[in-house]
């Protein structure tokens, strides 16, 4: 395994825990970028400074809007960080771990994953299960950062030298760990750059639809929203017309998926080899996430993602393809029920830096009826995922996580 060198830097028994809980190549990242991030996190753990107070505070901020450290699934980085934090969190009283809400929630989630629990129990009591009183944890309130202010330079008389424009950011009082962890301030883009970006996005829109704002400019509807919304995600019906194993990765399939585009099927790389037999993938109709940024996976560029349900007991307990209604056609729109979402247009491409999919993903699940849905974390309203002909389903899984 290419990641052996990185894991070997970890002290025992943490090294053994990571190796046992994440035995597959894809557990160390699917893309080259993911692999680099996983390696970086493990190196930080090996250096021993990740449990320092300032590092834990930073980790709490990082995890406020994330379920996992890298991408949307458990990796060796999560297991390494969990193991490193265990001695510290095992000593904390409720008032202390309440002051680290994101870290506590994350730690409890990782320690409950089946493969992690199995590996941890094998090394007990070093990584024994820690019980948290989460029911009485204060509700986390997220407040936006105050916007940065710009001091515009005054225009000087003709012939005089121009005054440089400077930016000044007011000093922020450092929040304690019990305060809400705020999202990074994105700042307002300059008008010229914004209009150029909007023009570009309009040309790249999947269906060409735009709306006009009060100023009369053509703007892609979903991209006007400042808040992450499930309708920003472009879900479509796909048909697997060809599939083979990745030539350089035992855990990856390379599929050709027809999503009704004139340019032909898209190449999609999926880490499903260990979970879904290839014969159950061939000629399959499924749901595809079409507006993620293309990613290079072991030398093969992937232009979409297969939408799957993972068992609530972890992917090792089962992964299933989300199935569109019978009679669905490639390229059919898949959307979220509800007046707010049904007519909204997805963004042309999700910006990885804005973590739109990562923010929405924790709300994806399958209901008691096995129907795929998104549950709004604020209102708890249920929005089923469907086409015009019916709701999308998981074959057997209830309470599954979707990604």
TrEMBL record:
Cytoplasm found in the keyword field: yes
Residue span(s) of domain TRNA-binding: 229-335
Pfam family, one: Arc1p_N_like
Location(s) in or outside the cell: Cytoplasm
UniProt entry keywords in alphabetical sequence: Cytoplasm, Protein biosynthesis, RNA-binding, tRNA-binding
GO biological process: translation
Biased composition, class Basic and acidic residues, residue ranges: 138-148, 188-204
Region (Disordered): 138-228
Example GO molecular function: tRNA binding
GO CC aspect terms: methionyl glutamyl tRNA synthetase complex
GST C-terminal domain sequence ranges: 1-147
Stretches with biased composition (Polar residues): 166-179
UniProt name for this protein: tRNA-binding domain-containing protein
Lineage: Eukaryota, Fungi, Dikarya, Basidiomycota, Agaricomycotina
């Amino acid at each position: 395994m290419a990641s052996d060198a990185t894991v070997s830097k970890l002290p025992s028994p943490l090294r053994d825990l990571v190796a046992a809980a994440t035995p597959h190549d894809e557990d160390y990242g699917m893309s080259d970028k993911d692999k680099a991030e996983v390696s970086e996190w493990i190196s930080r753990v090996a250096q021993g400074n990740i449990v320092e107070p300032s590092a834990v505070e930073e980790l709490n901020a990082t995890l406020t809007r994330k379920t996992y450290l890298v991408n949307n699934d458990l990796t060796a980085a999560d297991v390494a960080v969990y193991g490193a934090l265990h001695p510290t969190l095992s000593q904390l009283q409720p008032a202390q771990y309440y002051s680290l809400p994101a870290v506590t929630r994350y730690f409890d989630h990782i320690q409950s994953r089946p493969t992690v629990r199995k590996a941890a129990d094998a090394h007990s009591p070093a990584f024994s299960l820690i019980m948290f009183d989460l029911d009485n944890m204060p509700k986390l309130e997220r407040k936006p950062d105050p916007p940065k202010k710009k001091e515009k330079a005054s225009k000087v008389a003709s012939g005089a030298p121009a005054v440089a424009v400077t930016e000044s950011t007011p000093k922020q009082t450092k929040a304690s760990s019990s305060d809400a962890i705020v999202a990074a301030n994105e700042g307002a883009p300059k008008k010229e750059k914004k209009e150029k970006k909007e023009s570009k996005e309009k040309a790249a829109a999947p269906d060409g639809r735009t709306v006009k704002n009060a100023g009369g400019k053509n703007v892609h509807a979903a991209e006007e929203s400042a808040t992450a919304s499930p309708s920003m995600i472009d879900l479509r019906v796909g048909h697997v017309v060809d599939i083979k194993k990745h030539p350089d990765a035992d855990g990856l399939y390379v599929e050709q998926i027809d999503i009704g585009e004139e340019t032909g099927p898209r190449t999609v790389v999926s880490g499903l080899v260990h979970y879904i037999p290839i014969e159950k993938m061939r000629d399959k109709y499924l749901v595809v996430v079409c507006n993620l940024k293309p990613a290079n996976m072991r030398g093969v560029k992937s232009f979409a993602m297969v939408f799957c349900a993972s068992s609530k007991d972890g992917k090792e307990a089962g992964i299933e393809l989300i199935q569109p209604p019978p009679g669905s056609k490639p390229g059919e729109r898949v959307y979220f029920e509800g007046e707010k979402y049904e007519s909204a247009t997805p963004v042309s491409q999700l910006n990885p830096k804005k973590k739109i999919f990562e923010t929405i993903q924790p709300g994806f699940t399958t209901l008691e009826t096995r129907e795929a849905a998104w549950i709004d974390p604020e209102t708890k309203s249920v929005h089923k995922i469907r086409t015009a002909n019916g709701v999308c389903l998981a074959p057997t899984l209830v309470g599954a996580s979707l990604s």
